[in-house]
Amino acid sequence: MADTTTPMPPTLTATSETPVQTTPPLSIPPGFKLHVENTAQILLPDTADAFLNPVQEFNRDLSVACIRTWSDDMNAKRKAVWEAKLLSRKEGTAKGKGKTKRAAEDVDETDEPESKKVKIIESSTSEPANSMDVDDATVATTAAVLDPPPEKVEPIIKSEEFRPSKITILEALSATGLRSIRYAKEIPLVKYVIANDLSPAATAAMRRNVELNGLGPSTATTSGPSQPGEDLGKVRINEGDACDLMYSHRPERLRVDVVDLDPYGTAAPFIDAAVQSIKDDGLLCVTCTDMTVLASGNYPEKCFSNYGGIPTKTEYCHESALRLVLHTLSTSAARYGRFITPLLSLSIDFYVRLFVKVRTAPIEVKKAMTKTAVYHVCQSCQAFTEEPLGRIVERTNGDKVNLLYKTTPSAPSSDTCVECGGKLHVAGPMWSGPIHDPTFVKQVLEHVNENSSNYGTHARMKGMLTVASEELDTPFYFTPAKVASHFHCECPSLDDTASAILNGGYKISRSHACAGSLKSDAPQAFIHDLMRTWILDHPVRMDKIKDEASKTLLNKPIGTTADFTRHPGLEAISNKIKLVRYQVNPQPNWGPGARPDSKKKNKGGAAAE
Ligand SMILES: C[S@@+](CC[C@H](N)C(=O)[O-])C[C@H]1O[C@@H](n2cnc3c(N)ncnc32)[C@H](O)[C@@H]1O
Ligand SMILES: [Zn+2]
């Protein structure tokens, strides 16, 4: 193939936050084709040695938006602490408080680990030996908290400015480096990204691509901190095993702000290393594409070995897949005195993508068992009961409240469903707490609304994020179509069903995980009564009903009569959003994509894992 001159990729709109990226004119070497995604351009060998799945653009767009939002939020919180300290120092000085005591108090107020506190104090008196080791904002904060001589207080405070923290990102399984390149170009305040892959073909591709995007030097091969005066570039390539690399970042001073796991299939083998290599309040981003294991009843043994829980074989299997991955993250972090806070957990097309915050706090670790449950799931009507693994009992002793951690009495009194008489099967244990932080999701949504032109998949992002931000905490969801199928009746519309639930005094939301689904805190018995009330006006031919479970459901008397009058609250459950929320088929034979060496077997380039 002859060299070809190619137009440049679109540049980002210049805003105060987004740096404009300029790229020199480009000629494509023989044997390569150019792939452009947002600000990044990469060369793909015609032989397809390194893995790229263009369908994952949505995953990468979402990740850029989430990491930006998390980084902005983290800096906003640090700024608030910094300002409060500055103010208290001003007030303290005005009241003539002692210099030494003030400085000591301020340093102790930080929630930085002990080793870092020592480092902070040292960094204020001497240049750090290695500039990469000391967090910029912390240095600025330290400069602010150390008291100058009393007569110089006011001028120094006025000249102080908050310097936001720069972040380090570790992409453990990078393939072509496309994701790392986008992070380096599109996320302000990135100090550097470590792009790692085991495959020499992948790291060779990364080197080419990093250089092509002006993020070199292309010879950089180390993921560690640079020596003074040494420039390792903004994307640093490492060739090696992902776990080895992450374990090498386990010591507190070497931890990174963000770890991204985007493997073939399951992320399970990488999670133990990942939860240990992240700074406190850092962000862990995880993809799993093994939905045949996570979201079907076909491989319970595999799901248990990878995630420590059993999946559900139901229409809500995509939400239970998310909860199984969260369970793995939670229990893995707990082993090291750390806990997770899910920020956003999405089931998308053929994979799940989760963003969780990781923090060290033994008291929160104790609560993990109360956010974990097994579910008893009916194989016929899919009704379920939740059985938490633990509970907290408060004991008051004078002014003191002690928390006791207890097991729970077993919930089901029989092995058959109270609704239809079907067989109950156990699923889990899995995460039973919230799967998103609505405040965070709304912040990401706001960011995407303000920067739509920066994201090729912004329409779908807005739709997914809108639904996720409104989702009820409660597990799981259902579709009126599925429930109606158990009754063999005509299906009530979403609006009819939602109105009846709201009129019954229960809450309702959509679920991002399934088109046409609803989430509610209404008991299953109420949903079934709703369907029985519906059937009064939409009769069922009983002589056609063959299966016992359906006969039982239909023959039960109505406990609570449902009211289908249109409820004004419907407006609030994003019924009117006509944005792209669910799966859009972007190319023929799409899916998780195949490993490079199996490409020949899957000519379409998209194969089930
Ligand atoms: C799905 S691809 C990554 C795609 C990439 N994150 C993106 O957004 O384009 C998975 C990559 O993981 C690499 N890999 C598999 N096992 C690994 C391991 N143990 N350590 C490091 N890399 C590994 C493979 O070589 C492959 O390039
Ligand atoms: Zn049942």
UniProtKB/TrEMBL annotation:
InterPro entries: SAM-dependent_MTases_sf (IPR029063), Trm1 (IPR002905), tRNA_met_Trm1_C (IPR042296). The keyword Methyltransferase applies. PROSITE patterns: SAM_MT_TRM1. Its EC number is 2.1.1.216. Keywords: Methyltransferase, RNA-binding, S-adenosyl-L-methionine, Transferase, tRNA processing, tRNA-binding. It is an enzyme of class 2 (transferase). Residues 16-25 have a biased composition (Polar residues). GO terms for molecular function: tRNA (guanine(26)-N2)-dimethyltransferase activity; tRNA binding. It catalyses: guanosine(26) in tRNA + 2 S-adenosyl-L-methionine = N(2)-dimethylguanosine(26) in tRNA + 2 S-adenosyl-L-homocysteine + 2 H(+). Residues 1-29, 91-132, 585-609 are annotated as: Disordered. Residues 1-15 have a biased composition (Low complexity). CDD domains: AdoMet_MTases. GO terms for cellular component: nucleus. One of its GO terms (biological process) is tRNA N2-guanine methylation. The keyword Chloroplast does not apply. Gene3D superfamilies: N2,N2-dimethylguanosine tRNA methyltransferase, C-terminal domain, Vaccinia Virus protein VP39. Belongs to the class I-like SAM-binding methyltransferase superfamily. Trm1 family. This is tRNA (guanine(26)-N(2))-dimethyltransferase. The lineage of its organism: Eukaryota, Fungi, Dikarya, Basidiomycota, Agaricomycotina.
